Amino acid sequence: MTGELEEGMLRRALWTAYSDDTTRASIISTVANYAMSHGMTMAEIEAATGLTGFDLVDPERRLPDDVLPKLWNAFAAKSPVQANPMELARAAPLSVFGGLAHGAQFAGTLRSALKLLSDNAILLSNSAVITLEEDAHEARFISHHPKNAEDGGRMSQFAMALAVRLLRDLEGAQDFLHRIDFAQPANGPVESYERVFGVPVRFDQARNVMVVVREKLDTAIRHANPELFAYVEAHFAQERHRLEESMDPAPLKKLRRAILRNALSGIYRPAQAAAEARMSLRAAQRLARAHGTTLQRLIDEVRMAAARALLAAPDSDIANIAAIVGYADERAFRRAFRRLVSQSPSAYRADHGRRVAPAPGGFL
């Protein structure tokens, strides 16, 4: 690798293109803008995460899950007193949730609004799991993300507070909370959490839970519109299906991730891809064929994704890119790139090269 930013670009491009573990960019840009409004620079964000301003411009873009804990931790190290998720939850726009925030206002009841959020968590983050449980006494809105512990719980605490704010904005849905539990410690005074939620908040619990007064689940929402809500539900069902269709089948995912891990170390050989996946070479080749591809094609796809990401940086050297993506020399790389991408590296750079765009201005 030739530098931290180039390495970050490569890692981000590969994992965004081929990993299911992604998060909606609007969530990441909200945290980044908050950090910058409290003194963190874009250069510091780049160094911590590999993100550039270009990555934060499109709210619909999806970025690797590991970016958020890196960003929160870097900001907490720089401004530990200000790294309170409750402050961000009070200021952040509800559009962080994308169309879900708008669609929830047409729900008939608080239950259907909560169900809309839980059913469509994948649209916010592929790894997020949200469930709604009920018994005779209470309802529990339970959220989990495998990265929760990596940032000390900051992202889960912010997301829960923003979800409560969204639900309270629905006319008629007010005094529905009974208690909040978080799996990680508090990131700031407990009083600041209880001011935001208005109910007792417990930390270091088994899971992240919004405990709802069960009778309130049938609270009617003033702006309910059954026809519009049916459209909203159908639309998000299509979005979920499209996202799920883009994911690799589980067996192929294992092989693809092995190729990715090798690629991040500059290794692009079939035998080593199979070994990284803990398979024989023959078994890996059979698996790829069973899913309508070949092991070499999977490796070449990753190579070209890496090459395209690096070519987008206008000052990166083509000979160096050739070495990074595993070609013996620049000439071999140029031949392969033209064959696989139907363009020369220079032509691709002319069409797609960019200078780093500034991050979106202003927090709100």
From TrEMBL:
The record's annotation in SMART domains points to: HTH_ARAC
Q: What is this protein called?
A: AraC family transcriptional regulator ligand-binding domain-containing protein
Write down the species. Pontivivens ytuae
Q: Record's PROSITE patterns?
A: HTH_ARAC_FAMILY_1, HTH_ARAC_FAMILY_2
Q: Which GO terms describe its cellular component?
A: cytosol
* InterPro entries, per database record: AraC-type_N, Homeodomain-like_sf, HTH_AraC, HTH_AraC-typ_CS
Q: Does the keyword DNA-binding apply?
A: yes
Alphabetically, the GO molecular function entries are: DNA-binding transcription factor activity; transcription cis-regulatory region binding
Q: Which domain of life is it from?
A: Bacteria
For whether the record's keyword set contains Transport, the answer is no
Domain HTH araC/xylS-type, first and last residues per copy: 253-351
Listed A to Z, the keywords are: DNA-binding, Transcription, Transcription regulation
**Residues annotated as transmembrane:** none
